[in-house]
What does this fold into?
Amino acid sequence: MTDLLDNAPEALRERLARAGLEFLIEFLEVETRLHPENADAVSELGSAYTRQGRYEDGLAQDRRLVRLVPDNPTARYNLACSLCLTGDTETALEVLRQACDLGFADADHLEQDEDLVLLRDDSRFRALVNDLRAGRIGPAADLR
It folds into this structure.
């Protein structure tokens, strides 16, 4: 069966996607107000804000998430991305290192993530990726 939107104009598909994202944000805002300790909802809200281009709001949720789950490498990674998207590359590098120290290990993803584009030419970022690949940081470092 063909999806009903396959033949719809691109503009209509984009409007529907925006409406769905706006609905999701409204839902998650209510959920996180009612259940402020719901780390999954906080994470999803931060991601939705970022997809909508609301980087400062996404950053606030990522900071909140790290307070809820301080040892979660993905939460730290997402915080680093939000920091980078808001122009705080110095802190983004520090938090990215923390994410790797906590267990984030996907060097390929680091190099390809568009959220980290401001870091790609930084020698410290290159060193971080190289250290991760060589097992000098991250889970592989614990096996040495």
